[in-house]
Task: structure prediction
Amino acid sequence: MYKIIGADDKEYGPVSEEKIREWLKESRVNSQTRIQSEGSTGWKPLGEFTEFKDMLAGGAAPPPVLPSGAPVPSQLSALAIASLVLGILGWVTLGLTALIGLVLGIIALVRISRSGGALRGKGLALAGTIVSGVFVLMLPILAALLLPALAQAKARAQSIVCMTNMKQLALGGILYAGDNKDQLPSGANWCDAIGKYVPNPKVFQCPSGDANQRCHYAFNARLSGVDTKTLKNPSRTVLMFETDGGWNLSGGPELTLSRPRHRNVIGMVFADGHSEITTQSRLRNVRWDP
Result:
């Protein structure tokens, strides 16, 4: 005796071998129908039972029908639809959803082929698999095109932060001078001197600099303790500039970066508070003396 799971997922039986053979002739069951023999606990496809091989050999599995004799209406595979949708969305997600679409498309194709006609949508599943597969293959190319642009954008953002930091440091030096008879801080302790005028210690650090160093900027030693009123051309006189790093570091052109951190340019801020970026070759055009 046997029990079967019909195409409607309901259990039928127990029925005899003769009855199942009769259902096979009437196409009410097929090789994919799940069946359980008396005394066993597992369900297996009917096609795996040797006693029915003679009726199944040489032909494709007939379309499933309910044990009542009514045909089972085929359903459109939801996985096939999802595969195609995710594949198309790869245009928007730069191919990321295509990874999922490829997997779902393959699963849909397998399930449709094993459904014995209960599922349809093989064309959709195939299209979803192809579209998704194309995007998956394109991912390395898209990454190669996108990563340099992202790196350039990150470098530009870091240079902007660096220049903003220098402006705040220059403002701190100007505020210090305002509280100290217009005299700029000493180059020997300028970081400590303007510390209370700087809102955040991180301002002393460039985002592209060594995180282990407290400061990535140097003070123009020739302006150490100079009266701001005596400056001949403050808009062209260097106040602070980028260097390799060091707390309370001061000096002149010899301390400028030998290897610029920002796209081959060096940042500096002038005695009037404005900042600029320049190349090594243009350093001769700025003033270092008061």
